[in-house]
Specification:
14 strands; globular; alpha+beta; 6-stranded mixed beta sheet
Length: 345
């Protein structure tokens, strides 16, 4: 899978990031998202693959492109026999977020990315558009910290795993009313808190790399992004756990579905009988091969954002593979006009 799709999925996230970045700072979050979706889908449909969107822009009646269940790739076309032999190609599931952090792009803030994850059919958890309680931590703490433990307990364990004092730890939490008590508990322990307004995928995967000065992600965010984060952390050997949140009173900022009971019924319709189950990254991204790709839209901890110059642009991307056990950072010059001398400074 990696050999076949590796370079092309880089181009998929690059094109989405470039399209979205043209709307950076213009206050138009919906437009920034829309152009990213269009660019991602257009490039994806040029790839010789049989792909299916399992996490995307919403249900078919809500999203015209990259909707859940949409088939993508040349080999899903009606005339696919003219381009490839579909029966010889492995079917793959794809989770996408063409503009992760639309508000970040709209208001020119750091941390937005175009992201996707790929695995064999059935290899990615088809998360409902609910929320998810998340815990991400470095590989040294994998299986030792636990989402069912208190923040105090987990910080003590993390401190021991990383051979750092609790005061040296940085925990990322989304700045939401539902996290008021969590933030206070982390501060009472002596750890430092980095509040973010959006974009917790970047925060989660930053835990998988040393030197980012991000040691943990705690709190509740969107469930689909949790699956994408889990795919990256599975490849990195990091710790990730997620638990679906179906009670609107817990989330406090709105939730798909009007009631706790209605949301539980929806989960059962999707085949999820235990709404309180805690999933680890191997369950959320269970495929034999998992690929994760991201491209910075605005500057972030791991990647620079898109930088335009006369006649082109420069991007930084990240591709993580469970197959080759690699994390590749790619610096790309995109020449929109005819090739010319490129100034790298």
């Amino acid at each position: 899978m990696e050999n076949t799709l590796g370079l092309e999925i880089i181009e998929v996230v690059e094109q989405a990031a470039i399209a979205s970045s043209r709307w950076m700072g213009k206050g138009e979050k919906n437009t920034a998202d829309q152009v990213a979706v269009e660019a991602m889908r257009e490039r994806m449909n040029k790839i010789h693959m049989r792909g299916r969107i399992v996490i995307g822009e919403g249900e078919r009646d809500e999203a015209p492109m990259l909707y859940i269940g949409e088939e993508v790739g040349i080999c899903t076309r009606a005339d696919a026999q003219n381009f490839c032999n579909p029966s010889e190609l492995i079917e793959i599931d794809i989770a996408v977020d063409p503009c992760e952090g639309t508000n970040l792009v709209a208001y020119g803030q750091n941390g937005s990315m175009a992201v996707l994850a790929i695995s064999e059919k059935g290899g990615l958890f088809a998360a409902p558009d609910f929320y998810m309680k998340k815990l991400a931590a470095p590989p040294q703490a994998r299986g030792l910290v636990d989402i069912n433990k208190s923040a105090t307990e987990n910080l003590k364990i993390l401190s021991e795993c990383l051979n750092r004092s609790v005061e040296e730890l940085v925990v990322v939490v989304m700045d939401r009313p539902r996290h008021t008590e969590l933030i206070q508990e982390i501060r009472n322990c002596g750890a430092r808190v980095r509040l973010i307004s959006d974009g917790d995928v970047s925060a989660a995967i930053s835990c998988g790399f040393s030197g980012t000065n991000i040691h943990c992600l705690m709190g509740i965010g969107a469930a689909p992004e949790g699956v994408i984060s889990a795919a990256a952390m599975r490849c990195l050997g990091g710790h990730f756990q997620g638990q679906l949140i179906y009670d609107p009173e817990v989330v406090q900022t709105g939730l798909i579905g009007e009631s706790r009971e209605g949301n539980l019924a929806r989960l059962k319709e999707m085949g999820i009988t235990d709404g309180d189950k805690v999933y680890n990254c191997d369950e959320l991204a269970s495929g034999e091969t998992v690929l994760f790709a991201a491209c910075g839209i605005t500057p972030g901890v791991l990647m620079e954002g898109v930088r335009f110059f006369h006649g082109g642009a420069r991007t930084q991307s990240l591709v993580i593979s469970s197959q080759s056990q690699t994390a590749r950072f790619i610096d790309t010059i995109h020449m929109f006009d005819s090739p010319q001398t490129i100034n790298l400074h």
